Amino acid sequence: MEQSISEIARLTGTTSRTLRHYQAIGLLEPSRVGYNGYRYYDDDALVRLQRILLLRQLGLGLEAIASVLSGAQSNTDALDTHLRWLHAEREHLDRQIRSVETTLKKLTNGEHLMAEEMFDGFDHTAHREEVVQRWGADTYQRSNTWWTQLSEEQRKEFLHAQRLIQDEFGAAQLAGHSPESDQVQAIAAKQVDWLRVGAEGTGMSVTAEYVAGLGELYVSDPRFGKNYTRHDPSGAEYVRDALAYYASHSLTT
Description:
The chain is built from 13 helices and 3 strands, in the order βααββααααααααααα. By secondary structure, the protein is an all-alpha fold. Mean pLDDT is about 80; it is low at about 120-125.
């Protein structure tokens, strides 16, 4: 059974132009093109489109999505990964909904507000105390000084570079690449290079011990690992394993 391009555009809330663009860049081929030039999509094409739309929702760019779709995972394995992410995202949203509902109810009834209830599900914890505890007040101060001296554009570029690395890790995991694979180790190298840029302002050395320890921190403290779980709930463990392997094989202690 096939669906026409206009029907798919209507059902998915996208446009025929977008679907044609996906074909042009090799991301989504129709199952056939009719004599009138209309494109039609069978079940396999629809599953692939569903994966594309889910990955777009995760924030991946089209190039990263193409990398994911070219991976070895079967459609069922890939959709299982997507489903686990959606469950995790739903839980996060449910906590925020309950938090706002509680605040609204207490405001309506004139009850006392509790911060713990108001901000459950929101990221409201600063990293200052953690950095001071692990690396010392001097390190935090040097890091803060370096950061504040950057221009707004430099800060945006620095954070954008990290976001791209996070997306590359997510795409590699969704594609089924192991943390020790060449593809993922190349991403780990980018992560370490990014860490070196920040470390220059603190006087710290990005050693094997530092990199491996940071990977462990992503797993042990959700505040640090949350950016790696946007694509998969086990993303922090995946990045930890990739960094640990990189540290032991490409860095000195």
